[in-house]
Amino acid sequence: MLRFGTYVRVGNAAEAYELLQKNRNNKIVGGGIWMRLGSRRVATAIDLSACGLDQIEETETEFRIGAMCTLRQLERHAELNALVNHVFEFAVHDIVGVQLRNTATVGGSIYGRFGFSDVLSAFLALDSYV
Ligand SMILES: Cc1cc2nc3c(=O)[nH]c(=O)nc-3n(C[C@H](O)[C@H](O)[C@H](O)COP(=O)(O)OP(=O)(O)OC[C@H]3O[C@@H](n4cnc5c(N)ncnc54)[C@H](O)[C@@H]3O)c2cc1C
Fold first, then answer.
1. Exposed site from 4, 13, 77, 84, fewest CB < 10 Å?
2. 33 Cβ inside 6 Å of ligand 1
């Protein structure tokens, strides 16, 4: 079972980073989809959902994808997918079901570094950086 000592919803990324540095058992929670499968005790769970990181923004030179964007957002973003030949749409559309893709995040998928990750493979194939 996954256990949290405390649960903190931070207001910005700097606050999250500071809290993360305080204890090596403090962890960021993305969608929590993968974390919940494990059995561990997290001292402080850090929730980024109030940090405004759930947007895909297009600038003149790049797309900026927030860590709390869901896989479903990646799958459905028309302009982003048009630019990359629909790689995100095809990479994620077979991952379980819409409910999971509405919850699993880009941040959790990248930080997780899962060897099986279709999400990470898509980002690696593109000119992307964190
Ligand atoms: C049943 C099942 C089937 C799956 N099948 C596939 C598949 O076929 N293909 C595929 O590509 N993926 C698959 N996945 C993985 C899924 O796509 C996500 O990558 C995974 O759920 C992690 O996303 P999350 O938001 O749930 O992360 P979480 O579970 O919240 O976090 C995962 C890790 O990342 C850390 N973390 C989260 N957010 C951040 C952040 N912003 N900054 C730093 N660290 C962070 C957490 O502390 C944790 O260590 C599957 C997952 C499940 C549960």
1. 13
2. yes
